[in-house]
């Protein structure tokens, strides 16, 4: 038992007994081991938030698309808006188009996050600019569910330039990559649609990874590490 | 609704946004555009999205029974089939965005026969077989599409053309309408012993132009029309109190209720009659007048044919070319098929040719010997469009070579006069000089026989080209029996000469349909013809040449391409499904070509067979591409049959 277990109790979220049981039953994480990419459940995630400050802002909606055996399943998608009391009308409303009334209808944060973690299951998360989504989700789960996020994240914004250096898109946006791969998506800046387009890019990248001899999570992780070092060395050199 | 349900409902609506986006994409393409939205949503929810990089194999014959139904979301897919004896596989088809595969294999629960390969990076929506089967049961539109494949696309085009025509003219009218629908009024009849005066009174009261004379059991005995009345009054020999049997035309022409308006129009035109009896089991059930048939058309086919046959001089015939163009346009607008239109144009052209010959004989004087006027090429196949060249010749009987030469010298000036009069009427003089005024084409039956023998015996490229023109052969004017014997001889000789058949088949592979490996159409790269393709040589010629070699080799004397396919099918030479597909594809290319000619005629441009596929609408483009694929299939089957 954790010695400081009493601490969060002060601010612990109010969960029903059933929710606590469900939280306890959440599956283990997928480590970045020798599991082949084809056999890994990948969940492509896109969060819409009330702003860009990972210490203060809140998750407003979650869009996620599962990739299994290298295939996107239309029937296996997740999108919810989260209920937030007194959600202020900020610029993100304009960016994401989630109106306060939509948020009113959203699920209570704890219930929705629990649903989402059950949907995610034993997976590796993929996201564009993954560190942001990882920190937002970590904080959201801690505050609203009292749960520690241990899932591994792979950043599509790193994966793409690593696997497609010929694109010469260094610091590109999701739109830039969508344009490069000639993907079209009418409903951009809605979490589900952004997750879908990220997932489509991920399918292309997985195919490129296979072509470059990367078949397991561990290999992908190692290659990303090398690539990151190389990039830092180059940047330092300049 | 509980709070829980409300939440999950909110979540569900949101997820539907991606489903909805995909549905919106699919709704641009058949059959998804006519499916029930709920069925389509069901399908998308059960779909998966897959990515294939360029060159990746998607399904292949080795993989066994096909497990998924594929829809191309992005990219281009090609089908490759290894033809025995060939080293590299042939691209048999290409599948673009919005198209599906492999329907035949899925419906037949078998492996695909063609390897499907990503021609570029592709995304495909895939539906697992179990769900495909469920959708097949769920959606009639989808089932229809899956079962009929490309044919239902062709149907849609026809429906579209007719719907447009109906909109344009405000009336639904099709030449395929059955006669029992058109001739639905009770016919005006009388007995043979009725006095003429009383019969005319009946006609007047019913305000019709004809009366049918029947026996007690309503079996037609004769017909009496206003024209007959006029002639009778002008003659003055027979009074109005005479019995009508004395002045009626006996054994009137009749058709069955199952015949179509088109059949009636053809009959009226070729027989110069204005009324057709509709007879079922010997009993008169209706009368169709040309007015019934063409009340909705501004240009009157029968009237036109009659005016042509009665034209006083070549100038009058020349003036009527414009009427023929307008008639063709109106038929096109009424949704007539390209075959119907080419048949009508050919029919009217035949009348024009006959009248020109009569007029020329009137001026020239009776020829020294009776002759038969032969036509070749597209005119021989009854496939003329408004864009028409002369390809003709003369045949006469002679007892010796010397006599033939003497008769030829007498006939040539008349032939020359006819050729030039035809040119005046809009039949362009043949650049290759395939005309009756050419001494080599004004021949006795024996001489024609020798000429044709030479084509079959010595297969030089030149002779093969000649075969492809002269063996589409028909009599327009004069006694046909000599020509028929001549052609029977040709068929016998071709049947026994496999070398000739082989070379003809080779010749039929010369013009390749313009579909390529990487783009959907192969277009001219530069010059005035940049970005265009030739509908005639690249689209129609493969069918015409293919049908000809198969017909000649199998003793079929018919020259019309569609008829050749039908008879080849009846004779078991080609599969019914193939015959149907070739026929539809041929119709469609011809239809696009005719629409283009109409447009050019209206805007006063010269006729051209070249079309820029980008100017066609989406559906037309797809079907044109599919039609070219059928041409390619026909060529592959010829190559296989003749081991080329």
- The SS-based structural class of chain A is alpha/beta
Provide the domain count of chain A: 1
- Going across the biggest sheet of chain B, name each strand in turn: 1-8-3-6
- The first-level CATH class of the largest domain in chain B is given as Alpha Beta
Instruction: State the total count of DSSP E strands of chain A.
Output: 6
The N- and C-terminal alpha carbons of chain A lie at a distance of: 50 Å
Count of helical regions of chain A: 9
Q: Give the number of helices of chain B.
A: 24
Helix content of chain B: 40-55%
Largest pleated sheet of chain A: 6 strands, mixed
Fraction of residues in β-strands of chain A: 15-25%
Mean pLDDT across every amino acid position of chain B: 83
Oligomer: heterodimer
Helix content of chain A: 40-55%
Mean pLDDT over the residues of chain A: 82
| CATH topology-level fold name of chain A | Nucleotidyltransferase, domain 5
Which CATH class of chain A applies here? Alpha Beta
Key attributes of the depicted protein:
heterodimer; A: 238 residues; alpha/beta; Nucleotidyltransferase, domain 5; six-stranded mixed β-sheet; B: 644 residues; alpha+beta; Jelly Rolls; CBS-domain; Beta Polymerase, domain 2; 4 domains; four-stranded antiparallel β-sheet; 24 helices; 21 strands; 14% strand; globular; disordered N terminus
